[in-house]
């Protein structure tokens, strides 16, 4: 079995890349993909750990993208050149903007905390949880640690969502072109996060295929078996690769690496097909 969608402390996961590889080995996973949000800083650590643990690690990234009227579409780039200097510079600029957004969110939260007669939180507290790209889950962890929220979901509902600030996204055309330039394969993550209406999804994915999308995350935590079957048929009709992953962060209750909520069993043949596409 494999898991092609995992996050580490370099974005919004709670385990370091080497820890994730060790967990994968313990679960008998043969291949994983480290796909952190807007950063590739953890890949070399994961690759090194994979060699010692006999776990294949696929270099990947998950970009936050805007397409038409859809914001925060997630685009996975697999088998990319993660050491490309131009790409690294783009990600660094993107992370600077993420940091500025995070500081603004913290300021908004502190206004709310002041009204609640609670002590303010700090940027330094939150950023200490991040090895790479800083994001809202790191702020949520501070709120939980302070006792201001009972868990991550509660932190988001009570503080992060009402105190949010606008997020910057990669334009879809730019993101697809960049993954292609890096020699990678562009795959749409958890498609039903865009829409659960099948006609809408078929239209969106069809448009993206025409722009250079190469795959669809058919097997994921947001889909039931019937939805995955629909996505598999759609991918086959459009000539797109099928992939799958748990989107494991380590902070969601009931989600495990490799199996998700218990419904995932992603065959190694999907990783093989992805690599075969890469070599074409």
UniProtKB/TrEMBL annotation:
It comes from the Bacteria. Residues 2-67 form the Polymerase/histidinol phosphatase N-terminal domain. GO terms for molecular function: 5'-3' DNA exonuclease activity; 5'-3' RNA exonuclease activity. SMART domains: POLIIIAc. CDD domains: PHP_HisPPase_AMP (cd07438). InterPro entries: PHP_dom, PHP_domain, Pol/His_phosphatase_N, Pol/histidinol_Pase-like. Pfam families: PHP. This is Metal-dependent phosphoesterase, PHP family. It comes from Geotalea daltonii (strain DSM 22248 / JCM 15807 / FRC-32) (Geobacter daltonii). The lineage of its organism: Bacteria, Pseudomonadati, Thermodesulfobacteriota, Desulfuromonadia, Geobacterales.
């Amino acid at each position: 079995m494999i898991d092609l969608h995992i996050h580490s402390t370099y974005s919004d996961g709670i385990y370091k890349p080497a820890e994730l590889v060790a967990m994968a080995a313990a679960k008998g996973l043969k291949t994983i993909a480290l796909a952190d949000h807007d950063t590739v800083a953890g890949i070399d650590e994961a690759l090194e750990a994979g060699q010692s643990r006999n776990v294949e690690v696929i270099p990947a990234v998950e970009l936050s993208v805007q397409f038409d009227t859809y914001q925060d579409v997630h685009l996975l780039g697999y088998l990319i050149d993660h050491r490309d200097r131009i790409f690294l510079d783009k990600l660094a600029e993107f992370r600077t903007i993420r940091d500025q957004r995070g500081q603004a969110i913290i300021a908004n939260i502190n206004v709310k905390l002041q009204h609640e007669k609670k002590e303010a939180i700090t940027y330094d507290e939150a950023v200490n949880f991040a090895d790479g790209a800083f994001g809202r889950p790191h702020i949520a962890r501070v709120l939980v640690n302070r006792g201001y929220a009972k868990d991550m979901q509660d932190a988001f509902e009570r503080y992060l969502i009402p105190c949010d600030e606008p997020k910057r996204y990669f334009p879809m055309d730019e993101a697809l072109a960049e993954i292609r330039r890096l020699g990678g394969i562009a795959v749409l993550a958890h498609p039903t996060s865009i829409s659960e209406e099948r006609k809408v999804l078929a239209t969106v994915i069809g448009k993206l295929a025409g722009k250079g999308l190469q795959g669809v995350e058919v097997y994921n935590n947001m889909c039931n078996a019937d939805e995955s079957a629909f996505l598999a048929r759609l991918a086959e009709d459009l000539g797109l690769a099928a992939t799958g992953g748990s989107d494991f962060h380590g902070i969601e209750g009931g989600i495990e690496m490799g199996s998700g909520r218990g419904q995932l069993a992603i065959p190694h043949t999907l990783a093989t097909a992805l690599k075969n596409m890469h070599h074409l």
